[in-house]
Amino acid sequence: MNALTYQTQTNSIKINGVKDLLIRSLLDRQQYYDPTGAASRLGICSASWSLFGMLWPSSIHLASALAKRAINPKEKILEIGCGLALASLVGHRMGANITACDRHPKAKLFLIENLRLNNLSRLPFRHAQWGEHPTPSIKDTGAALLTKKYDLVIGSDLLYEPDMPKALARFVDECANPNAEVWIVDPNRGYRTKFNKNMSNLGFQLSSEASLTELETTDEKYKGRLLIYKRN
Fold first, then answer.
1. What pLDDT is recorded for position 1?
2. Which of 61, 87, 114, 153 has a 20 to 30 A CA-CA distance from 126?
3. Closest CA to 84 of 44, 119, 56
4. Which residues, 6 or more positions from 10, have their beta carbon under 8 angstroms from its beta carbon?
5. What is the pLDDT of residues 162-175, one digit of tens each?
6. All domains in the chain, ordered by first residue
7. Direct distance between the N- and C-terminal alpha carbons of the chain, in angstroms, rounded to an integer
């Protein structure tokens, strides 16, 4: 990472069930670097540029939940809106067949760096985003576009704007196999009910809704839900 362009930090993250992970993240939410305008063309404004590179509590909850899941190497898993891809790194370390995807042009670079820090092998990354947008240039994304379908789709803290419930549900439907399962960690941002309705309209039934509270590894107050949907 080039310290002259943006500042980073490295922390050891504890996830029960797996060896601690070293995670390189942005130093704070004030970081910004888009000299070629790639992020802007992908719909990422300067105010939201840094969000992908922060380690959010919801991502730790998602990674912790995945660490408890029995691994089936034949099961294809996709983490959507992965950001720093903590859940993907946990799944990868456990031997899962997992792919990470995000729309941010720097997400792949941070994933590569965090794989290196933890002596992990290559993990597939794809560019993907939901909602209405033009087909992006590979020059801007730095990664191939998501095209395959998956057996388990996971994500955290994705319902943060009013239009997200419908757009996200449609995206999940596009990348999920017919009998797929979906895990979403939502920190009670207020759009869960609308998302449930949109998912139901696409054949995904809410099968489990577990309450989540603050983690032992953080000092932040946290309340949220782990939503599990199944489509049969």
1. 47
2. 61
3. 56
4. 22, 23, 24, 25, 117
5. 999 999 999 999 99
6. 8-230 (3.40.50.150)
7. 44
